[in-house]
């Protein structure tokens, strides 16, 4: 199964394309544009599922504009994927953190998710994964664990 995990940002986006049969990242970017990600969604017919991290407002002062922009891009990815890919999920950030780390209110969760992914994959399966792509990988793994593995039981 090929899962595209997306971590939308306010200006650039992270993504990973994960081959769950080989348990390796086959493509990633930590600074993709909206057009880059949309092109990947619309041009790669081998993608079986798209998992988009759904951001949430954390109450930071002056963060409204950034969160709004991120939600805007996430919605664009979601609606594009609905027309091209068999399975699409918007997974709340707190659900990714709870699934991978056991709690949703942890400080420095980005680095903890990165470490968790490094534990689950061999180093040669993670070549090129950096910055936003770690969060995208965490989203893809959460999708796989919660939707694919659970459905197979």
Rg calc: 14 Å
Bin the helical content: 40-55%
Which structural class best describes the helix and strand composition? alpha/beta
Question: Could you give a short account of the major beta sheet?
Answer: 5 strands, mixed
Calculate the mean pLDDT score and round it: 92
The strand count comes to 5
What strand order characterises the main sheet?
3-2-1-4-5
Unreliable segments of 5+ consecutive residues: none
| Approximate shape | globular
Compile the SSE list and pairings.
Blueprint: E1 2-7, E2 13-19, E3 24-32, H1 34-43, E4 49-54, H2 64-82, E5 87-92, H3 93-101, H4 109-120, H5 132-152
Parallel strand pairs: 1-4, 4-5
Antiparallel strand pairs: 1-2, 2-3
Helix pairs in contact: 1-2, 4-5
Task: Please tell me about this protein's structure.
The chain is α/β, with parallel strands linked by helices and 153 residues long. The chain is built from 5 helices and 5 strands. It has helices at residues 34-43, 64-82, 93-101, 109-120, 132-152; strands at residues 2-7, 13-19, 24-32, 49-54, 87-92. Strands 3-2-1-4-5 form a 5-stranded mixed β-sheet, with helices on both faces. β4 (49-54), α2 (64-82) and β5 (87-92) form a beta-alpha-beta unit. The radius of gyration is 14 Å and the shape is globular. The model has no long low-confidence stretch (mean pLDDT 92).
């Amino acid at each position: 199964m090929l899962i595209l995990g997306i971590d939308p940002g306010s200006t650039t986006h992270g993504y990973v394309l994960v081959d769950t049969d080989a348990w390796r990242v086959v493509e990633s970017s930590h600074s993709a544009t909206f057009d880059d990600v949309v092109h990947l969604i619309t041009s790669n017919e081998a993608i079986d599922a798209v998992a988009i991290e759904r951001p949430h407002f954390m109450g930071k002062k002056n963060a409204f504009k950034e969160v709004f922009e991120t939600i805007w891009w996430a919605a664009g990815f979601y609606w594009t994927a609905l027309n091209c890919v068999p399975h699409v999920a918007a997974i709340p950030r707190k659900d990714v953190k709870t699934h991978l780390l056991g709690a949703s209110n942890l400080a420095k969760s980005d680095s903890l998710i990165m470490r968790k992914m490094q534990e689950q994959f061999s180093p040669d399966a993670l070549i090129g994964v950096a910055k936003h792509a770690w969060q995208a990988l965490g989203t893809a793994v959460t999708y796989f664990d919660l939707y694919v593995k659970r459905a197979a039981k």
